[in-house]
């Protein structure tokens, strides 16, 4: 592998919706919120429902016991990337594509998978050129990255728009707790200081037993449902404005790829509960009050748990440099950027040498002035 970054030659194919005028593929245009045919210019508006009424939650217990209505479940073809284990969904007439997460060629399998349908989608707000500009601005701040990577990214290599799966959870919680409230006070003590007796204020804490209850309704606790991207990446892309979610229709996927979820509904809920418990513990500390708090026990009853499967937009650029895969990801709604970065050995060496020269010069000046 040469030192210049190289991409896999395998072609990428996305979700396809044919234009009724010429038969070419539509793509969803974020700037106009329309389906656009780049071949003949035909446009078609997407159907947008009322967010406040159309995006309803699903019952968590029903889903765990496989009792969801049939309309909430879909059978789809999914292949697992042999390199990063991403679950890539395929349209019926697509048999091969390049994994958007790591640029590895992926071929569809012959089986189908039964999955919970997406309930809502956050449409792309950034066009590809906007995402590319955000990535270039981010790269420009990485002074210690190899020049080859920066030049490669700025050549305008196509980025992949992909919808990443998430779970959201709603729940009502009531928690009983016991702990202690600490009140800070001071006492005056006589101590020896520099051979003399001096009076000094010493802090003390008076602890008082406290018990009680706190309640909180959790709305849309967001949990990544994919293992293809490191959680540090997806966390760095937050926050998401979930109030802009639209009822799911496949037209939003026109021209984009979509990943199937790999985190189960139960595992996602376990992660969401960890978040809820942290928030509840902060609520308990606030309820205890005082200057200090000790929380001994918290018992939480969770009820009315609902969920939904949502798709959030991410622009990605996967590339290989010296035989290793690297990725950039851009929040398709806000333009926030995160990614893996290689380090330039010669730039690091230059910085170290320059630092040594500066340190030697400063030392010499100090020595001359003594």
Strands, count: 17
Strand % is 35-45%
Tell me, briefly, the overall form.
flat
Distance between the termini: 55 Å
Task: Give the H and E element order.
Answer: EEEHEHEEEEEEHHEEHEEHEEEH
For the biggest sheet, the summary is: 9 strands, mixed
How many domains? The number is: 1
Report on this structure:
- The chain has helices at residues 51-54, 60-64, 128-140, 147-154, 231-237, 265-288, 345-369; strands spanning 26-29, 34-37, 43-45, 58-59, 73-80, 87-90, 96-98, 105-107, 113-116, 120-121, 160-193, 196-224, 246-247, 257-258, 292-321, 324-331, 337-339.
- It is 23% helix and 39% strand.
- The longest helix has 25 residues, at 345-369.
- The chain starts with 25 loop residues before the first strand and ends with a helix.
- It has one domain (26-180, 215-339).
- Strand 7 and strand 8 (105-107) form a beta hairpin.
- Strands 4, 10, 11, 12, 13, 14, 15, 16 and 17 form a nine-stranded mixed sheet that branches. Strands 1-2-3 form a three-stranded antiparallel sheet, with no helix packed on it. A three-stranded antiparallel sheet has the order 6-5-9, with no helix packed on it.
- With 370 residues, the protein is α+β, with helices and mostly antiparallel strands.
